[in-house]
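Most newcomers find our protein records easier to grasp once they have seen one. Sequence and backbone structure share a record, each on its own labelled line. Nothing more is needed to start thinking about how sequence determines fold. As an example, a complete record with its sequence and its structure tokens follows.
=====
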Amino acid sequence: MKRRIVCFHLLNDFSGSPKVLHDVLEGLLEDGHEVDLVTSRGGVLDTLKNGRLRRRSHSYAFSSNPLVTIFRYTAAQFLTFCMAFRYFFRRDVIFYINTILPVGPAIAGRLMGKRVIYHYHENAFVKGRFYTTLAKVMERIAHGIICVSAYQASFLKRKRGVEVVPNALSTDFIDKLHPDQAASFERKTVLMLSSLKAYKGTVEFINLARLLPEFKFVLVINDTPEAIRQWMDKEKMVLTGNLTIHPRTSDVARFYNSSSLVLNLSDPRLFIETFGLTALEAMSCALPVIVPEVGGIAEMVEDGVNGYHIDCKDTNRLVNAIKSILTDKDTYMSLSSEALDVSCRFNRDAMLKKISYRLFN
């Protein structure tokens, strides 16, 4: 039986959660379901093309002013709460809430007696009272909760209707990757995809470039060129000649294809990765990874086998690990082969099958 899924997502950019949502919705559409997508414009979800997809937009965006962001968030919840009631008389509708942020339409869905399923990407319980409150609302009103890692699910008090479904990559994205272990080793290039948020380790990455002038460093920041310039001026960043910075882009595969090693330097004292899509993307290109010691992202990496667990503040260990990986070919080839093998465990078809089951059962 084909159903109509009404999906609510707040910020449509090029970060992990909208990328995963793009692949899930693409799979649902391929299976013949009808999808209504309610989100902002300007990100990866704009590339979805299918005759059974209907779009409705709102204008939510982040602001450097926290008060403005709070106002925009509140306005978006009120708007999507009201928009949800257009489905009042549709009995076959399922509300699919991506991340815990679209609380307005989730509440509206329960008030109307619709099936409400959350795809939970954050770890709210380490992000402050606001997110904790949203998570508690989710636990009370959701018919089902899809978590992306066992680490993330362990924080939920509720166990009924909770399923762990690790993220996976689309076949289109994997087709753009060209693993070549020998060539990757010779590039001597360290890559990180990040943002301007303090907990993402952007400052630490720039510092590593200064300490390791013999290697190339490439930083892709999920923001506009103007925002990046303003941040650099504010932080008084001094860049070295071996570091290249790029703004947000829809084509990140080309960066993996021209790199040797990928870092995730999220600070677990400020933020804990619940999954780590960039690590999976890297490993799918046969690139070793260095990731934090805790969180869902740590579940993907066996220390010393397909990468390393290193705290972003442990500069000496980071420097030594990068040197070892990029100068010892035997070490590199072993890590690279294991990384590619591990990436194969994160299967798109298996992910879509589990998510479809949770949506409809």
Q: What stands out?
A: The chain has 15 helices and 13 strands. The mean pLDDT is 95. The CA atoms of residues 119 and 146 lie 5 Å apart. The chain has two domains: 4-168+347-360, 175-343.
